[in-house]
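Before a computer can learn anything about folding, someone has to put a protein's shape into writing. The outcome of that step, for a single protein, is printed below:
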Amino acid sequence: MLLDELRDLIDRYARPDLSCAIDDVLLFRAERPYPPTPTTYGKVLTIVAQGAKRFALGDRIYEFRAGHYLVASVDLPVTSHFTEASPGAPGLGVGLTLHPSAVADVLLAKPGELPDTGPAAPPGLAVSTTPPELLDAVVRLLRLLDTPRDITVLAPLIKREILWRLVTGEQGAIVRQFGLPDSSLSHIARAVRWIRDNYARTFRVEEMARQAGMSVSTFHRSFQAVTEMSPIQFQKQIRLQQARLLLAAQPGDIAGVSRRVGYDSPSQFSREYRRQFGEPPSQDAARLHAFESE
């Protein structure tokens, strides 16, 4: 079966740094469940080959298991972790970075044969069952790891096939949108990127809407549709997730970390941190630090 072969390939070639010999491909391997970890799902295709993975975006929980794929269209702050993994049956997955320019090239090849782009602002994340054609292409891409001399010539061709399977598949509307430079999703993606890069700064939603060429109400509605959060809630997620990463390395500097991520009030930071992660910063940081030290 294709899924069995995918498991074997990932298990053999996964490295601690997730990289492999094929550009833009990441291989995931986890031998145990681990605490939910802040991360970013950018423009990426991810397939779970073994185990189960859970992630949270705002108040929504997503779960995907072996044979499911996820498409992310913008740089979203999520908390993710494998929920089923053991040394005998590790959690295994593969990720492929999706470049808008490559998607646009595929769209231009067959514009008359593609359905409409879909909603003006489709959701930023979606999970579906991996169709056989897409799974087959991903397996053939990873088979190239067995014959490294073929990677340079054949990997670009198979990646293009994967993009075609995505843009014509169940979640094609998401992928097609971020391949169009003037789509609503692309405008929201730029706003998301600005907030991510400037998360400690204050901003006015009215100014961001103006730069996106939208009314405030349309911008707010589109931003919510893509990220499942308002712009202010999105910024708060970024701040808290960045704080959690910093505290895992510096568990004793809560006041300093709160200032670095943009909070003027340490007490407000502690309240919002506990509401988000279920524990006060000091306890959560100590637990994460201890887990990393095991």
User: Anything to note?
Assistant: The radius of gyration is 20 Å. The CA atoms of residues 104 and 180 lie 6 Å apart. The first helix runs from residue 2 to 13.
